[in-house]
Structures are given as C-alpha cells and as structure tokens.
Amino acid sequence: MSNCIFCKILNKEIPSEFIYEDETCFAINDINPKAKKHILVIPKEHIESLNEVENFDLIKKLFEAIKKINKKENITHFKTLINTGSKAGQEVMHLHIHILSD
Ligand code: AMP
Ligand code: ZN
User: Fold this and answer.
1) How far apart are CA 27 and CA 61, in angstroms?
2) pTM passes above 0.70
3) Residues, beta carbon < 5 Å, ion ligand 2
4) How many whole angstroms from 6 Cα to the centroid of ligand 2?
5) What percent of the chain has pLDDT above 90?
6) 5-101: which CATH architecture?
7) H/E element holding 25?
C-alpha cells in the first residue's frame, strides 16, 4: 500500500531500525513510546486491521514473534494491544500489535 507508513518502513522508504524480522513480520520501536519499552510488531502483508484478517495463522505467527522479541529484549512482563478501527484509537491502518513494558 503506497501511502502506508508501515509499508514505507518495510520498503525502506522511511528509515527505521528493525529490532526483529522474519518471513512474516518485523518489529520496530514506537516513535512515540507510551511505556519504557514500546515495540510494534507488524505483519509484512498490508492488512488494514484485525477486522480484515481471514487466516488466523498470521496472528499465531505474530504472537510467536512476540515471544522471540521479548526474549531478545529481556521483556518478562508486558501488555499487548491491538487497536482496531479509528474509533478505538487505531491511527495507522496497517495491522500491528503493541508490546508495552516498564
Ligand atoms: P495505533 O494507534 O494502534 O494505530 O498505533 C500506531 C502507532 O504507530 C503509534 O503508537 C505511533 O506512535 C506509531 N508510529 C507512527 N509512525 C511511526 C514511525 N514512523 N515509526 C515508529 N512508530 C510509529
Ligand atoms: Zn501497510
């Protein structure tokens, strides 16, 4: 999706450090952290939100990635958050899971 921030980050059109990457997803630090550690786990495929997910194998893979990311980042306690829809606070219309930890 050409005007999507996360697709642009994936395509290196916007610079960002990948703290994790696999065939399904990548993870970056949130530019406006709302906790000491605030990571975004983003599928490589442009899917607008959880409402558009058809194959939930993707969600399984994202949570498997979260476990690996947390191990790498020494995160033992955390919250995960998926905002779905602008009325729920979703600002970037490309599915992502927040990891928040102090
Ligand atoms: P949401 O409100 O769930 O859509 O979350 C979008 C998140 O993306 C917000 O927490 C933003 O701070 C974050 N964000 C927006 N642009 C960037 C960027 N270029 N790099 C990292 N995080 C970003
Ligand atoms: Zn996108």
Assistant:
1) 13
2) yes
3) 1, 4, 6-7, 46, 94
4) 5
5) 98
6) 2-Layer Sandwich (3.30)
7) strand 25-29
